[in-house]
Amino acid sequence: MMVLGVVLAAMPADAQPSRAIGRVKIATGNAFVVREGTSMPATPGLALLETDSLKTGADGRLGVSLNDDTRISLGPDSEARLSRYRYAPAEGAIALVLNFIRGAAVYASGQIAKLSPDAVRLETPAAIVGVRGTTVAVRVDPE
Amino acid sequence: MMRARAGLAVLGLTCALASGCARVGRMAVDEPQRPPQDLAVLLPDSDGTVGRATVSNASGATDLSEARAATRISRNQAPSAATVLTDADVQREFGDALSSLPPVPQSFTLYFQFESEDLTPESKALVTATLRAVKERPVPDVLVVGHTDTTGPAALNFQLALRRAQTVRTLLMAAGLEESAIAVASHGEAQPLVPTPDNTYEPRNRRVLITVR
Fold it and tell me: What ipTM was estimated for this complex?
């Protein structure tokens, strides 16, 4: 799986920067971005798109920042999905939905939570976390 | 009890597959007897302030409103009442993730003269400060967002705010920043710093916000 990720790394991740919703800032160990079923190494600077998943292996860590200053990080053996992201206040379009799938993650709020707290939804398999401009850590047990 | 044993067996299997055996083993000793459970913890922001969070599902809701307040959520059960974790608890559960959180973005607000794409003199000096912040970061990117006050039609203000942002991008590039590191956007009159009615002259809203991440 990890070998596959490396082979497919040649994909033009930055081909459509206009759709980019953020970037990878910090990556150590086995850290991946999964886009439409394809896993690629999460190298610092890699542009992120809506619906990307962030994933780490046993020794992996990953930190990303999104266009509205939201920051998200993962500990080892963790996975989270950037399910929905809209940041176009001039058009009244604001939304952030993160799905925490497993492992440990930290969410630090940005402009979206400031402009419209109800537009932020952090989902775990068992609950939804609503925020009022803050930092939240979430751990999800494997099933 | 049967359930706890099954949980241990699963952890053991994970250990055989993954390289993090020591870690999995330690967790199994700490918390061996429980079904899958999520944990949500409210943490102070980087500036020390503590926000609020509400953790809810179909069975109930728990408010978290103080530093390190936590709730545990089992599948198909209401979130537990809030308890306060210690710093050591937080470090054990989230130390790795916290250490990978990117630094807080730094913002600079530049102001413009009325209906103009020219910066006020004080704001020109901030271009240097922005460059300094950029150089302190490992993978810097810079977002430049233009704003106007509500004088005039919204569509024209969108264009004016965009031109202001482009002006700032040109200044940053002249100061040595690579174009590829800069993204430009316009929020027009939609996001005033100081809320006003329509058609209101307000110098504080004629600005470009530079965010260095």
Answer: 0.86
